[in-house]
Amino acid sequence: MIELPSDPPPSTATAQTAPQPHIAAPVVTIVGVGLIGGSIGLGLKRAGWRGTILGVGRDPQCLQNARRRGAIDQAVPTLARAAAVSDLVVVCTPVDRIAANVAEALAHGPDHLAVTDAGSVKAAILRDLRLMGETAGPRSRNDASAPSRFVAAHPLAGSELAGVEHARDDLFLGRVCVLTPSPVTDPDALERVSAFWTTLGCRLVSLDPEEHDRVLALTSHLPHLIASALAGCITPRDQDFAAGAYRDLTRVAAADAGLWRAILQANRAALDRALDLFRARLDQLRAALDDHPSATRFEHLWNEAAQRRRDWTFDPPGQPD
Amino acid sequence: MIELPSDPPPSTATAQTAPQPHIAAPVVTIVGVGLIGGSIGLGLKRAGWRGTILGVGRDPQCLQNARRRGAIDQAVPTLARAAAVSDLVVVCTPVDRIAANVAEALAHGPDHLAVTDAGSVKAAILRDLRLMGETAGPRSRNDASAPSRFVAAHPLAGSELAGVEHARDDLFLGRVCVLTPSPVTDPDALERVSAFWTTLGCRLVSLDPEEHDRVLALTSHLPHLIASALAGCITPRDQDFAAGAYRDLTRVAAADAGLWRAILQANRAALDRALDLFRARLDQLRAALDDHPSATRFEHLWNEAAQRRRDWTFDPPGQPD
């Protein structure tokens, strides 16, 4: 039987000499210890954070690997049990399971528990949580707000590689982490969750959940769909004549189907709008090629995009992506 | 006045102790000394080839930079003059200038001159050369074949960065170089051109010109068009929320507008077919997302592409493309 900490070790947040801000959370539970969850555990260790990391997941083998890699200190069989002894829970499961995991953590955690997540969509998760609140009966809060101690987050880091074996302690260094707090968000939970992501090396940016989903549909979800469509057009034989452009355009096509199906479905409306923009731009470029041979219009469109890309700076100290 | 070699140095091809095959061409002219042409010059030096490299180009500053970087030994003011003293000419100009450069080199070169190119399209260049032959009057060959001493080539390496300052001596190492010889191709020219690209580290593959254009439309030209369309949809403000997927999907959008306008126009028919395939696949994926929540069809399509991408191997010893 796993022995859970009954008396959490003292917080390290009061250590004035610490080189960086550490979260005031002696016990953190990671739900879903794959690439993201595992990198969170390793990142906390790298940052010198000295609390206890509990891991919860459906696959015992994965949890064992996470412990062997040092991403978690202890595997706990149920989220309810882990949440009960935690100060902060970070939910790193696929986006279609996040709302249920958040609700479960809040239902079983202490009053001061703060909960965050790492999901690639935000509005759908918050909507599901509000619906759960409405249908949970008289014991739940009677407004339709999302839970006040849940601070939805999205660290903009990941990889086409899945699993704790690909976790990295520098995955979040220098990356933007979007938070989508609301007027009902508890200030203490917001502070604790902010410190948590900052400890991992993230730069925090607050956005409205719908604005997050609009932007990420363009910068991440649409690119993944495009990568898959492109890779799907090119046969193994034709791949022999592929080089750098193909390599880069299709890298994320190798990502997990289930994870991406859930993300794209959860952000369907914004994805459709992004897709319409993309198709229109593709049509414009194609039509501008007809303007033979000068194609001033084509070069104008191309240069506009080229200049944006050249002006973009992205150099997190960690590795791709 | 530039002093051109009147008595070419002895060929190094007879040196039995040479570590790799060297071309039997004491004087090589590079026409267009940018990223590709410059990398050819540096690559020949890296391979230990000891002939003379002449450079021809429209921009004197660029030729001076090429000489400073050691990519060429000498700049020559006109292609006619350089070709006259060359054993091999490699044309690295934009695809809409290649046919004219090839014809000019052949018109002014010695009988044994072999000519090759590095253009990203093949059928249009060969067609233009045949048309030039037909209209050149009674002194030209009377069949409608492309010139027999021109061996069209396409080394599958490049970069979104332009100019000799980005040239690399390892750009071609381990890369496929497609040759598109025809029944009229001179065997001696074919052998010399083959040895040339092999000296640079390429693996040679022969294809029909139309087959080359069909495959490259999918593996290179379509990805460039997609990259530009995607980058064009994302505003500078939204770019702040971009990470690895955006970085990779849009890298080649920063490529030169004129070069790519010419390539896409020259391969328009194959590009249109590739674009139709891509749109159809995108439509399939989008429609399969409706199949909420299981989306078995979506995951099947996604996994097919993901598996192809994971099975693809690409690890040239040189740097990214």
From TrEMBL, chains A, B:
All copies of domain Prephenate/arogenate dehydrogenase, residue ranges: 26-320
Positions of transmembrane segments: 23-44
Example of a GO MF term: NAD+ binding
One Pfam family named in its UniProt record: PDH_C
Protein keywords: Membrane, Oxidoreductase, Transmembrane, Transmembrane helix
InterPro entries: 6-PGluconate_DH-like_C_sf, NAD(P)-bd_dom_sf, PDH_C, PDH_N, Preph/Arog_dehydrog, Prephen_DH
UniProt-listed PROSITE patterns: PDH_ADH
GO biological process, one term: tyrosine biosynthetic process
Protein name: Prephenate dehydrogenase
Species assigned in the record: Isosphaera pallida (strain ATCC 43644 / DSM 9630 / IS1B)
